[in-house]
Amino acid sequence: MVYTHKPVEELTFTDDFMFGTVMKNKTICKGVIERLLHIKVGKIEYPSLQKTIAPFYESKGIRLDVYVSDSERVFDIEIQTSIPPFLPKRTRYYQSLMDVDNLLRGQSYAELKESYVIFICTQDPFGKDLPVYTFRNMCCEDGSIIFDDKSVKVFYNTGAYDKEGESELSALLEYLCERRATSGFTQRIDALVEKAKRNEKFRSWYMSLNIHEDDLRMAGEKIGFERGIRKGRKDGIAAGSYQAKLETAKLMAEHKYPLSEICLMTGLSEAEIQKL
């Protein structure tokens, strides 16, 4: 089977790899957050891209697209070109692990930062044709009582950009949906996107990731097919998957990833990884 990937020239801001690259720019990252949430953001910590949070070895870890904080708040920004399954429960889990990551042992609950989980979706996540869906906890019996736990979940439907009344946010959503840069800010984003496409290091890294991904798929399929002949398709596919995990672990170890993160990403035990 031949695997195809989007050519570098066709990448847009909504592609994970490009989104993470452009959001490394503090000014752009800060500007995106301020436009999405209509707030002023203080000095931000350097954006963490593909941040892994796995507080306990046996618990399910998460990888966040862009993880940013200022002195009072923490933000997770996810870009979604399709609607992931169990979206509400996914955001609940993301927020809970962000809290664990945020609060050190011995600290008071009062020191928990306000947290935002932000999903930018190119499809309508709730089917109501709203540009923005914001969720905060409140009392069912009296809607005027807000359960002010400082946790917010916000979802954006880029296709409804023309229904957003605030011009800067509307322009950002339009750019994410149509790739038309109609504001000064989105023109700056677009310029960084085009600059990245011409950057040899960016192109080389993007291509190498795609090649490695294809190699892992092919290795898994080959071993799965061979084992499938001898022991049945189910066992063969499992063996291929295991070999692919070993190859991934080996590559991550060569790039000095922490052992805990390699365990999280591959599902292998520390003992298995240390044998590589």
Verbal overview:
The protein has 276 residues and is α/β, with parallel strands linked by helices. Helix content is 47%, strand content 15%. It contains 9 helices and 6 strands; from the N terminus they run ααβββαβββαααααα. The protein has helices spanning 16-22, 26-37, 87-102, 167-178, 184-198, 200-231, 233-254, 259-266, 270-274; strands at 48-53, 62-69, 73-80, 114-121, 132-135, 151-157. A 6-stranded mixed beta sheet has the order 1-2-3-4-6-5, with helices on both faces. β3, α3 (87-102) and β4 (114-121) form a beta-alpha-beta unit. α6 runs antiparallel to α7 (233-254).
Short description:
This protein has helices at 16-22, 26-37, 87-102, 167-178, 184-198, 200-231, 233-254, 259-266, 270-274; strands spanning 48-53, 62-69, 73-80, 114-121, 132-135, 151-157. By secondary structure, it is of the alpha/beta class.
- Quote the average pLDDT: 83
Strand content: 5-15%
Radius of gyration from CA coordinates? 21 Å
Categorize the overall geometry.
Answer: globular
Largest sheet: 6 strands, mixed
Class based on secondary structure composition and strand pairing: alpha/beta
Output the helix-strand order: HHEEEHEEEHHHHHH
Strand order of the largest sheet: 1-2-3-4-6-5
Distance between the termini: 28 Å
Helix-residue proportion: 40-55%
Number of strands: 6
Helical stretch tally: 9
Defining key terms:
276 residues; alpha/beta; globular; six-stranded mixed β-sheet
Which secondary structure elements does this structure contain, and how are they paired or packed?
Blueprint: H1 16-22, H2 26-37, E1 48-53, E2 62-69, E3 73-80, H3 87-102, E4 114-121, E5 132-135, E6 151-157, H4 167-178, H5 184-198, H6 200-231, H7 233-254, H8 259-266, H9 270-274
Parallel strand pairs: 3-4, 4-6
Antiparallel strand pairs: 1-2, 2-3, 5-6
Helix pairs in contact: 6-7, 7-8
